[in-house]
Amino acid sequence: MKLRPGLRVLDRDPGTLQIGVDQRWATVLSGLTPAEATLLRTLAGPAPATGEDLLRRCAGRGVASARMAELLAGLDRDGLLIEGPSGALPVGSGAGDDARAAACTAPDGDGAQVVAARRRATVAVVGLGRLGMVLADTLASAGVGGFLFDDARRVRACDVGVGGLRERHVGLLRSQAAAQVLGGTYPALRLGAGAHEVPDVVVVVFDEVADSLRTVRLMVEGVAHLVVTVREGDVVVGPFVLPGRTPCLNCLDAGRTDLDPAWPRVRDQLKEAAALVPPAQESSTAAVAGALGAAQVLAQLDGRLPATAGACIEVSAPDAVPRLREWPMHPECGCIDVSGAGHG
């Protein structure tokens, strides 16, 4: 048994240690003798000791092995100890810090295996302006190994900036430019491999209003997908749709129509306006929303429920402070039946 990688062992006062600082798992051990505290501090650091090491060292430090076993059992019950060594990252991987961070939350504490699973995954990104590029770059940095890019529009001067697009990319197809940027930064990526490959997650970036018609196939085929909508003054990250399990775009559209009967007419006008003049992707909101979107995708790939499954995160300019809004499945949508048809 060993302490989860990355956790700190800190002195609070004589006889009291704090293990970890995050409120989700931080634990305080009190009533410790100086010798017990000295042994427990060795659980962290550049060459951390294991629980077995501490038990072997008890006799030489004047610590009762039963007492140390009791302390270690408490840390184990709190989820701070894990079994065995962590797996190794692939040679050349740049996701070492992501693996260290994942070790704090992964059930078995093996962050390297979390990153290895991401490396086997493929994510499709539809819409590769500033926001889509931030999202894709964040996913690649976190260890995702395969991407399918879809955006036939050309890079504009206003796309240059956050996300990695540069002046030399202006005029190229966005999907081509995205492959150049990410392929140059992460040479081991699988880009566009397998034209008929079904991605693990699809991210669709819409302008002004999300169009449920563009996600019908994903619903029928049961493909998990994240919707991101760039609007005139904010970006909406979500919903993350798990077909048949969480609210879809039709659910949100129907719910909004319940609140505002004029919404369908307004929605159709927004679609037309966005086709002529897309909304601006302001730097800070694009960066924040892109990173939040990537976090939702990583949650799904890591086996966790994304926060936007049944919700949206609204990121408004100019403060770019995220706000969560929950949405239920609409009783008249029928999306459970639609998604089920694809697996019938």
Automatic annotation (TrEMBL):
The answer to whether UniProt assigns keyword Metal-binding to this entry is: no
State the source organism's domain of life.
Bacteria
GO function terms (MF aspect): nucleotidyltransferase activity; ubiquitin-like modifier activating enzyme activity
Q: Name one Pfam family in it.
A: ThiF
Tell me where in this chain the THIF-type NAD/FAD binding fold domain is found: 119-333
Q: Tell me which positions the record assigns to the signal sequence.
A: none
Keywords, alphabetical: Nucleotidyltransferase, Transferase
Tell me which SUPFAM superfamilies the record gives.
Answer: Activating enzymes of the ubiquitin-like proteins
Q: What is this protein called?
A: Molybdopterin or thiamine biosynthesis adenylyltransferase
| Record organism | Sanguibacter gelidistatuariae
What taxonomic classification does the UniProt entry list for its organism?
A: Bacteria, Bacillati, Actinomycetota, Actinomycetes, Micrococcales
